[in-house]
Amino acid sequence: MSQPRQSRALIIVNTDFCGSDGEAKHGTRKGARREAEKLSKALSRLNYKVKLEHNKTAKEIEELYQQECGREHGEHFVSIISSHGEQGLVLGCDSEPVKLTWIFQTLASKKCPVLTKIPKIFFIQVTG
Asked: Which family does this protein fall into (predicted)?
């Protein structure tokens, strides 16, 4: 009897931000790292294969979601993003935006067939 495939979770938490000049921007999001680590442990206990990523640029965030389209998934896919942002977008640690619609379209069945018929659950926490 084969083991069921593990459901996957991708957690991205950005706590430190800088502008294109390398100067600190937006302030540090204190406590966000600890919260993400707690979420990671909770999902692991629920038998999710968790990928926890810290301080990713906008380009790196986009690459992480594109990579999910080539991975095996179980019954669910959970995405958690904790960052600065505003309505409809999150910021990479480089203070560049990633549109949420881009993420949703990237994981849609047309572009990501491995996630067809697999529930996708998104938790997005942004501070302005």
From this structure: Belongs to the peptidase C14A family.
Per-residue pLDDT of the chain (128 residues; tens, 9 = 90+): 455 668 999 999 999 887 776 676 766 777 888 899 999 999 999 999 999 999 999 999 999 999 999 888 889 999 999 999 999 999 999 999 999 999 999 999 888 888 888 999 999 999 87
* CATH no. for 8-127: 3.40.50.1460
Q: What are the residues facing 11 on neighbouring strands?
A: 52, 80
Q: Tell me which DSSP letter residue 18 carries.
A: B
Q: How many CB atoms lie within 10 A of CB 128?
A: 7
Q: Where are the domains of the chain?
A: 8-127
Distance CA 58, CA 82 (A): 13
- Least Cα distance to 79 among 63, 64, 96 occurs for 64
Question: Model pTM?
Answer: 0.89
Expressed in angstroms, the distance from the first to the final Cα of the chain is 50
